[in-house]
Specification:
Layout lengths: L5 E9 L2 E8 L8 E10 L1 H8 L14 E8 L1 H7 L6 E4 L2 E2 L5 H4 L10 E2 L18 E4 L5 E3 L6 H4 L2 H13 L8 E5 L3 H12 L4 E6 L4 H9 L4 E4 L5 H8 L5 E6 L6 H9 E9 L13 H7 L2 E4 L5 H13 L8 E5 L4 H8 L10 E4 L4
Parallel strand pairs: 10-11, 10-13, 11-12, 13-14, 14-15, 16-17
Antiparallel strand pairs: 1-2, 3-4, 3-8, 3-17, 4-5, 5-9, 6-7
Helix pairs in contact: 1-12, 5-6, 5-11
């Protein structure tokens, strides 16, 4: 297949500003490659980058949830990754150096020199990094996973949020069969956490949300949540005590975005010796009512969670390929590349009458 000389991309040039550009398609060597993007997932981090909260370099091509077809690949890269031209792949968002202390200890997502595809500026050759584009460069240090080509792109691209569910709700807190888990927030990563917890054998999965989240809470029940709680119309603390016979949850995972109240409340929901995972970012806001003595007296373990690692992605892809759950139920919107700003604003509830759970960009080729 003859490749084009340029790739159309949406480039963030300033806060809340995305501009269409044609960028040169880079030459590849034996260790790199190119992927033709089929779909790019949209999540809260896209909004934070768009809004300038993350203070990422600009101009840059956003997009850190790429699914696509290998369009070109070097011989050594093909052997190393076990893929070839024509294979569908999911690309991990983080690039690590592979030789610093955290990398050598197995925590490559905490690499001292880590980079995230969508935050690398155009000035860093070859420039075509993020996946708000028709094509994306595959760096020699990236990690890729083969994906069943028969899946619809909008379903297959959910490898990213579902991977987060496995890592944040299962791997980090070591959720075991028989555990009770409370998931704070029924967005795409909260719903993904429901699926991951059920796969791990959790005996009771409880999801909290707002009155406006009624549809999402219904999907949580379809995905296997045993109980859902509307925190605006129910006393969540009393309800969780009732559902756990006064014991509290083994695991509490906060995946709510910007809301600070769940962080303090999580300490009330956890049992003695329980585990709290904080994965929802809050825009660097302080947490009112956070009482550290509750951590001491209950000996609660608190873990931060950033990103997904290969085991999470692999479990996510396995589950998607199994077609065991109606995962497509949480996909609500497809957007073209030129509509990237509308996609972000829809997710952020800035478009009246539109409610997004999972959405993605589908480039035209």
């Amino acid at each position: 297949m003859t490749l084009p000389k340029t790739s159309f991309a949406m480039v963030q040039t300033a806060v809340r500003t995305l501009e269409p550009m044609d960028l040169p398609l880079p030459e590849i060597d034996d260790d790199s490659g190119l992927v033709r993007i089929e779909a790019c997932g949209i999540c809260g981090s896209d909004y934070e980058q768009f809004e300038g909260v993350l203070r990422t370099p600009m101009p840059a091509v956003p997009g850190h949830e790429p699914l696509g077809i290998v369009a070109a690949i070097g011989d050594r890269a093909a052997r190393r990754w076990g893929v070839d031209v024509g294979d569908r792949i999911a690309v991990e968002t983080m690039l690590s150096c592979r030789h610093c202390g955290p990398c050598l200890q197995g925590s490559y997502h905490l690499c001292d020199a880590r980079r995230i595809y969508s935050y690398i500026p155009l000035s860093d050759d070859p420039g075509l990094w993020g996946s708000y584009a028709q094509y994306m460069y595959l760096d020699p240090n990236c990690v890729v996973h083969k994906v069943d080509a028969s899946l619809p792109p909008a379903t297959a691209v959910m490898f990213n949020p579902l991977g987060a569910g496995f890592r944040w709700a299962v791997e980090i807190p070591k959720t075991r069969p028989g555990d009770t888990i409370v998931i704070l927030g029924p967005g795409q990563r909260g719903l993904a956490s429901v699926l991951a917890a059920r796969e791990a054998g959790a005996a009771k999965v409880i999801v909290t949300g707002l009155e406006a989240d009624a549809n999402k809470l219904e999907i949580a029940r379809r995905f296997g949540a045993h109980e859902t709680i509307d925190v605006q119309n129910e006393n969540a603390k009393h309800r969780i005590r009732e559902l756990t016979n006064g014991r509290g949850a083994d695991v509490v995972v906060d995946v709510s975005s910007y809301a600070v109240e769940p962080v303090a409340e999580a300490l009330d929901y956890a049992r003695m010796g329980g585990t709290v995972v904080l994965a929802g970012v809050k825009g660097f806001k302080e947490i009112p009512g956070f009482i550290s003595d509750k951590i001491v007296m209950k000996e609660v373990s608190i873990h931060g969670a950033i990103g997904v690692t290969s085991t999470g992605y692999a479990n996510a892809i396995r589950l998607i390929e199994s077609r065991k759950y109606p995962i497509e139920a949480m996909h609500t919107h497809d957007f073209g590349l030129r509509d990237a700003e509308r996609a972000i604003r829809t997710l952020a509830r800035e478009i009246e009458g539109e409610e997004s759970i999972h959405s993605c960009l589908i480039p035209e080729h």
